[in-house]
Structures are given as C-alpha cells and as structure tokens.
Amino acid sequence: MRTIKSGISLFLYIILLLKYHSSYAETHSESTDSLLAKALKLYSKNPDAGITRIRRIYLFAKKKDDRTAEIKSATLMARLYWSGGQYDSAGLYINYSLQLTEKFNIDSLMGDSWMIAGLIDHSTARYQQAIQKYKSSALYYQKEHKLTSMATSYLNIGMCQIQLSQYDNAIRYCLLAARLFEGAGDKANLANAYKTIASCFSSLGEFPKAILYNKKALSIRLKLSDKRLIAQSLNNTGNAFRQYHQPDSGIAYLLKCLYLRKNEKDSSILVLTLQNLGSAYQMKGSMNVAERYLLRSLNIAEKYNMQEEVARGDLDLAALYLPERKFKQGLAAAQITEKTAKTLNIPQLLMDAYAMKSNLYTTQNDYKNALLYVNLKNSIKDTIFNSAKNKIISELEIKYQTVQKEKDIAALSTQNRLGDKIVLQQKRLIIIFIAASLFLLILSAAAYNSYHLKNKANQRVQTLMRELHHRVKNNLQILSGLFTMQIGELNDESIRNALRENELRLTSMNLVHNKLYQDHNNTQIAMKEYLGSLLLHIKESFGKGADIALKVDVENIELEADKAVALGLIVNELATNAFKYAFDGNAGELYLCLGLQGKSKLLFQLSDNGKGIHHNSSAKNTSFGLKLVNLMARQLDTSLTVQNMNGTSYQMEIPV
Predict the structure, then answer these.
(1) How far apart are CA 565 and CA 7, in angstroms?
(2) Which helix (H) or strand (E) holds 641?
(3) Is the model's pLDDT at 444 over the cut of 70?
(4) Are 401 and 126 in contact (CB under 8 A)?
(5) Which of 403-412, 452-461, 469-478, 608-617 has the highest mean pLDDT?
(6) Burial classification of residue 38, based on how many CB atoms lie within 10 Å of its CB (0-12 exposed, 13-18 middle, 19 or more buried)
(7) Are 369 and 361 in contact (CB under 8 A)?
(8) What is the reported pLDDT for 150?
(9) Residues 199, 206: Cα–Cα separation, whole Å
(10) What is the pLDDT of residue 619?
(11) What structural domains does the chain harbor?
C-alpha cells in the first residue's frame, strides 16, 4: 500500500480548483475553491476538524443546489478518506460525485472524479477496474487540456499493469506519461516515470534497459538535489547491475547509496540496500563480506519488526550458506522464511523457501526430503495458476461491464437533451443488452470449460494408451531377449528352432507396439515399413543374409493395430517356413506383395522360388504355426490359399 501511495503521490495534493463560482460563494463572499483550500489546510493540522469543515461545505452546496460546489466538496471528501485508508467511505462520496457529473454533464470535473475512483480500486487491488477508471480520467483531462493530470493517469495505468504482470503495456503507458511530463517541464514526475519503466524492464529480464532508465531517473534527481530520491535511484541502479551479473558496478552504486544514508544509521530504509549489497558480494564470491551485510540488514529488519524483509534476508543467508554446505545454518534460515511466508500469506516467498530447502537437502543426498519440498513448491505453483486464471476470468467480465458502462455514459450525455422519457427507455434497453451479453458470456464460458475438460480427458487417455504400448513393447522386448539368450545356450536344434519361432512371433507384435508408442497420436500402422522391417529381422535371425533375396512390394497402406498384428503373425509364420524348408541352403528369393484390389479389398501374396510343398507334408499342415496362420486369417475375415508352382505361393483377399 505504501508503494501505491508513494507512486500516486502525483495526484494526492492535486485538487483542481476551477474557475466556477457558486451560489454558496456569493452568500459567503468567498469562492468554493478558496473555502475548500482553507478546509484542506485545516485538515493537515487537524484531520477531524478539516473533514467536518468540508462536510459542511458539501451539505450547504447540496441544500442550495450548487452542483459544482457539491461535486468539488464530495470529490475532496473521497480523496481524503482514500488517503486515510477508509475506502468504503471514499467510494460512497466518489460514486455520488460521478452521478452528479454525469447527470449534469460537468465535463470539467469528470477527470478528478474518475481519478479518485481509480485510486480507490488501485488501493484495494482491483486493478482492471482501476485501469478503466484511469482511462476515463485521462480522456476528460485531454478534453480540458490538463496534460500533467493526463500524464498522471497514464502513469497510474502503468502501475496497475505492473501488478497484473502486463509489463509491455505498462512500459507503453509510462512512456506516454514521461513524454507529457517532459513537455510540461515536470522533472520530479518525469524521474518517477523513468523509475517505473526501469522496474518493468527488470521484471522482463532486460537489465541493460533497466540500467539505462534508472540512470535517467538518477540524472534528473541529482539536478533536483533530493537526497532521499537520489539514494533511491542509486539503490535501484546498483540492484539492476547486480541482476545483470555485474556485481562490481552494482556494489559501486550501492555503496554510494549507503554513504548518502550514513546519517540514517540503523534506519529501516537501509534494509533493502544492505540486502542488495549482500547479494552483490555473494555473487562476487566475497562470502564473509556478504554475510556481514546480510546479518546487518536482518538485525535492522528485526528491530523494526519488518517481517517480510526478515524472511527475505534469511532466504539470502540460506543461499549464501548453500554453496558452503553449511546445512544446519541454511536450513534454519530457510525455515524462518517458510514460517513468515505462511504467516503473511506470500505464496511466491513460500515457493522460494521450499526451493531452497530442496536444494539444501540435495547437498546432503537426502533426496526424499528434497523431492518432498519440490512437490510442495509445485503444489503452490498450481494453486497460484488456478487462482490467477479465475482472477483473469473475473477481471475480463468486469472489464467487459466497465467498457459497456463507458459506452452507456457517452450515450446518456447526448440523450439527456431529448428528455427524461427517452433516457429511461434507453436505460431499459441497455440493461436488457447487458443481461443478454452476460448470458452469452456465461454460455461461452461454460462451453469453453466443457471443451477444456473433454480435451484434458482425451489427453489423459492418449497418455495412458502410450504408456500401455510402452509397457507392452518393453515386456515383449524382455521376452524376446530371453528367448535369444536361451537359443544361444541350447544344443538341441529342435528346441532352438521352437524358441526362434516364438522369438520371431514376439518381434512381429513388438514392432507394432513400438510404432504405436513412437507415434501416440496415430493408431494405424504403415504396413510398408512394418512388413519390410519384419522380413529383414526374420532373414537376419536365420543367418542367411547372403543367400535369400527379399523383394517387398507393399503399397502405402495403413491398417489398424489389431489387423496389422494379425497380418504380421501370418507373414512371420509363412516366411519362417520358407526360410526353414524351401531352399535347403541354396540361394533363392522371397517375394511379398500387399496392395489394394478395388475399393474394399487388399490382395496379399507371399511366395518363394524354392522346392515347393510336397503332398506328404501333412504333418506340417497340423503344426502350431499353420494353426496360428489359419486363426489369424479368420480374424481378418478371410482364408489362405496355397499354390505349388515353381515354389510355394500363399494368397489372401482381405476385406477392408
């Protein structure tokens, strides 16, 4: 809150006392502006007496229907209640002031009223609403050619956008403000605008630009000879150099700041500078000096009960102890930070404390606790994300309503001249329009939420399917590896052949699951690549790479995984039989063809130019392999035909 008020001090004492004279002034031989100025002077000495005086002016003006005096006094009451932190009372007076300015079209007072309304929202963290009200004030200030006040509105917009982490937009508005302040010759506020721009660049990690604008602010403040603000700019510039990993330059500026504040001794304003010095010396590697500055900042912060600064100082100490492997000291400091962050409800600081504790436990090889604090940090991060998402949705709804309200105000200011009856009709139409728009917005939000949940569920299903294929692939690889190991250790050729056949069957299935795992967005298998890889593996397993030529003629066809597995097992069995029985150790050729036949069938053919099948091989026809072939053929809703001419040829017509 202190930061907001110091940054908005540009407007704190600006009460635009315009050239209107009211009936109240005529009665009392003094203008409203003069009376309010005296009441404000009394307020600075005795706030209660000052408020009472302003309230009397307000009530008298209301009684006499002096709208200008009524608006000015209500606006001043709102501003004083705001500066005292009484935001509810401030809101009541400023809303009444806005109603009057809109009703009677007093544009000259609109800017002040919207500015105070923005300050109230700004101070209560309603940043989107504050931005819209600051924009309204800037619009009316522009109409009245009040450029300094307009610049103040822009600067306040930038400060709200910083709170919303909208740094690019904040820079744009602060640059507009700086241009106006420079044109008006307002050096103090120009330096304040540069300081705010520098803080935006620091948040974006653009430290050279942050240094540049901090130096601009420092140059102006040196000319103004304000030691307090000079020290502030020295501290900011030094900290920017530290963040830019130039500790020597940072230390030079920070020591100058410390020298300017030497008369402060152990004042609370030294804490940030001492912490920055400690961090800079730590970056430089001067750990003892760093520890001395950090401990001094901690002592001052504890003296003035600056709980957040104490917590941040302890976090800096923990970071100092981490590379020195001073586990106990570092853990104690991090625990203080954790406790304070929970007490003050500062999520980012709590996340930093958990991260530090995880790093400390890692140095002790205590990975259980290290993982625990990583998970705690991630849990807070998820909570912050969800909270921010809900806040953004809420603020977007409010922004929409605010924009609509601004349009309504502009329309009403024109329609008032047409009479009360027309105004009433327009208001009713506007209310209906807003209600319909909100209804559509709610429907859109519900539809988006439903889509988001469905998409999330689909992603989870895809992840589970990919994991399933991954596990099946791994298990098949393990079994295949076991069979391969056993084949190498056995002497019985019949057992070796049986194991080799099983290993090849596993490989035909494993290739499918491997491709499904690699491309988790597709459930279909490219048959050309799959069947080619399968035949090559079978050939290599028989050690006949130089004897048997493979000819693969497969079109660019994709099949579902279940059909691909069935066809792969058929190819495996038939090709294995060919390698075992067709060639008797002689050279030969194995030909595989798969292509479309019409629009609804696939033609499959696997043939060899070996010795062919003899009629007395009925024993082979009842083997497990050929039973498996027939079973897979039935699964594909087809049957296998065999031709024995210049070798053996198998054919199938597969419906698709």
Answers:
(1) 70
(2) strand 641-644
(3) yes
(4) no
(5) 608-617
(6) middle
(7) yes
(8) 94
(9) 10
(10) 39
(11) 1-170 (1.25.40.10), 523-655 (3.30.565.10)
